[in-house]
């Protein structure tokens, strides 16, 4: 089904109570008015169950103010009493203390899921309910030539098409012509696939989500990115959770970046931009060995290709850390957030009950991080969120195209977090602990970037400044936590490789260690860029380019390997 409707170019679309009559050009027929009437009744009952809490004012405890006041007085006293050197010593002691707190919090959140075994082993893939929950999947797509593989992966899953509705949101401009044709080709072949093509100049993911929301008929509304490869059993497991936990309003699955190195194309450059599996691909992500003829071993073209491959891999040191970040976030940090009942939802593989989403007012079409914004609002309204993680159920994605695109992506995320912080919905959280945790979570990317810049300076001052032994030890504390983080990352990286059966070498571990301080500098650059864009009022959406590199990276483990499978069996938690 292909749906056209006008979207004003001057302002993002507002949520609609009911969709206009669509013009059908293939695919499934739309449901009648009875469905929308039932939606309204369920939404009314859900609104009654989601009372808007009274807005709280953030009032830190007096001892917190006293601590900061005392710290400031010590610095002022040192400047007056001891001169410039004393001022530097006192000020840097305060900075080191803040760096230590940031590093300690990061380490604690990173290791949360591994501190107790019961926090990990909770997903049973064998105990599943029969499919019975109608699910609507929204796939926002903008200039995505890899869309075909994503739709193919969804349709090849084990969830019945009769219970599945796939809404692909594209644009009516020339830029999106190829993506629109791919989406329409699937809509012509599969009744459960529908294409929505809004007219309008302003396009972004949250706007696309809001455009598609009125057309969703499923009891669960899920979001899948256009380049994602979802697991075959994902929807079946989501169905099981929805049936067994009727009090859970939001279900968050795991997402994992897969290409720890840049994918090798046939020309030696990063590849994987095809919508269909590349030649030699076996369909499950494993690549069939290619025969190399005489021309593949010699000649200037082969030498150039090898040189480009070497350069590409050499400048992709950050990818392994980017992949590990996702693993730790969904494996541990998100579990901590769920237990704290304050969860910034992911923008992919998240499923919301339709009446809950209606009661929350849908997605904020002006937000840069609509997922985080929805998570904060749902936490403030007391919506229960269930988080699960299992390597066999994760949605697979790719790292950004280049280091520059990583900076652009992270600056958008940081700017979106600050946008959510300034919006102030976190003030509706019921407890002071939750509100303080929200401030920490939304501002932590900037603190981490600042710590990355200050750590080298701290190392220099350790050997230059003359200070009491106690203060020198304080200067060393952030470095000690950083070393512990590196060790923990190596352990997590080993588990990540075993969980996903990835081929890696010792060079990947070396890149992970050596690249740590440089990666912090990259995050610092992203934080600086986000700050500049905030001051300039540049809040427009910046799209991340997708090449489909993760479509050719995963390889099955050698059946003759004797390596013991130490992969965790899963992670599940309810907030």
TrEMBL record:
The keyword Magnesium belongs to this UniProt entry's keyword annotation: no
Chief localisation class: membrane
Membrane topology, as annotated: Multi-pass membrane protein
Compositionally biased residues, Basic and acidic residues: 31-47
Region of interest (Disordered), ranges: 1-54, 265-298, 550-575
Keyword Repressor part of the UniProt annotation: no
GO cellular component terms attached to this protein's record: membrane
Protein name (database record): Glycosyltransferase, catalytic subunit of cellulose synthase and poly-beta-1,6-N-acetylglucosamine synthase
Key words of the record: Glycosyltransferase, Membrane, Transferase, Transmembrane, Transmembrane helix
Subcellular location per the Swiss-Prot or TrEMBL entry: Membrane
Biased composition (Pro residues): 10-22
InterPro entries in UniProt: Glycosyltr_2/OpgH_subfam, Nucleotide-diphossugar_trans
Transmembrane regions: 64-80, 86-107, 442-463, 469-488, 509-532
GO molecular function: glycosyltransferase activity
């Amino acid at each position: 089904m292909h749906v056209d409707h006008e979207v004003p170019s001057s302002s993002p679309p507002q949520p609609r109570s009911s969709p206009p009559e669509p013009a059908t050009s293939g695919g499934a027929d739309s449901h009648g008015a009875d469905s929308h009437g039932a939606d309204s009744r369920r939404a009314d009952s859900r609104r009654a169950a989601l009372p808007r809490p009274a807005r709280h004012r953030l009032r830190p405890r007096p001892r917190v103010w006293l601590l900061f006041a005392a710290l400031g007085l010590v610095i002022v006293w040192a400047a007056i009493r001891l001169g410039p050197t004393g001022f530097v010593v006192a000020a840097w002691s305060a900075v080191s203390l803040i760096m230590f707190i940031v590093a300690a919090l990061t380490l604690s959140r990173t290791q949360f899921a591994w501190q107790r075994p019961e926090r990990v082993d909770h997903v049973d893939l064998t105990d599943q309910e029969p499919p019975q929950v109608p699910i609507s999947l929204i796939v926002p797509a903008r200039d995505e030539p890899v869309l075909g593989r994503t739709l193919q992966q969804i349709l090849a899953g084990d969830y019945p098409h009769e219970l599945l509705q796939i809404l692909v949101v594209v644009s009516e401009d020339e830029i999106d012509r190829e993506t629109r044709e791919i989406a329409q080709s699937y809509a012509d072949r599969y009744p459960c696939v529908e294409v929505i093509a809004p007219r309008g100049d302003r396009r972004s993911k949250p706007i696309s989500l809001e455009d598609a929301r009125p057309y969703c008929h499923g009891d669960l509304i899920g979001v899948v990115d256009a380049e994602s490869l979802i697991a075959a059993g994902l929807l079946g497991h989501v169905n099981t959770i929805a049936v067994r936990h009727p009090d859970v309003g939001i279900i968050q699955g795991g997402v994992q970046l897969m290409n720890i190195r840049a994918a090798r194309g046939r020309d030696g450059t990063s590849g994987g931009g095809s919508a269909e599996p590349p030649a030699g691909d076996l369909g499950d992500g494993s690549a069939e060995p290619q025969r190399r003829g005489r021309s593949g071993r010699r000649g200037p073209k082969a030498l150039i290709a090898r040189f480009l491959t070497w350069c590409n891999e050499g400048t992709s040191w950050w990818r392994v850390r980017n992949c590990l970040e996702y693993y730790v976030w969904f494996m541990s940090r998100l579990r901590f957030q769920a237990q704290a009942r304050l969860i910034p939802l992911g923008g992919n593989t998240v499923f919301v009950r339709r009446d809950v989403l209606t009661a929350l007012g849908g997605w904020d079409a002006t937000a840069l991080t609509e997922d985080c914004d929805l998570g904060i609002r749902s936490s403030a309204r007391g919506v229960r969120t269930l988080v699960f993680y299992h390597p066999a159920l994760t949605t697979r994605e790719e790292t950004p195209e280049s280091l520059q695109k990583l900076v652009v992506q992270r600056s958008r995320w940081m700017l979106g977090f600050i946008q959510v912080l300034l919006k102030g919905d976190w003030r509706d959280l019921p407890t002071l602990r939750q509100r303080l945790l929200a401030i920490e979570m939304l501002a932590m990317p900037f603190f981490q970037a600042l710590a990355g810049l200050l750590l080298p300076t701290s190392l220099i001052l350790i050997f230059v400044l003359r200070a009491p032994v106690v203060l020198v030890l304080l200067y060393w504390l952030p470095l000690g936590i950083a070393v512990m983080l590196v060790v923990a990352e190596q352990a997590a990286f080993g588990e990540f490789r075993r969980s996903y059966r990835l081929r890696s070498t010792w060079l990947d571990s070396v890149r992970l260690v050596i690249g740590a301080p440089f990666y912090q500098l990259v995050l610092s650059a992203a934080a600086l860029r986000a700050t500049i864009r905030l001051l300039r009022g540049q809040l427009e959406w910046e799209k991340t380019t997708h090449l489909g590199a993760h479509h050719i990276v995963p390889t099955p483990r050698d059946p003759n390997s004797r390596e013991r499978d130490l992969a965790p069996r899963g992670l599940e938690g309810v907030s």
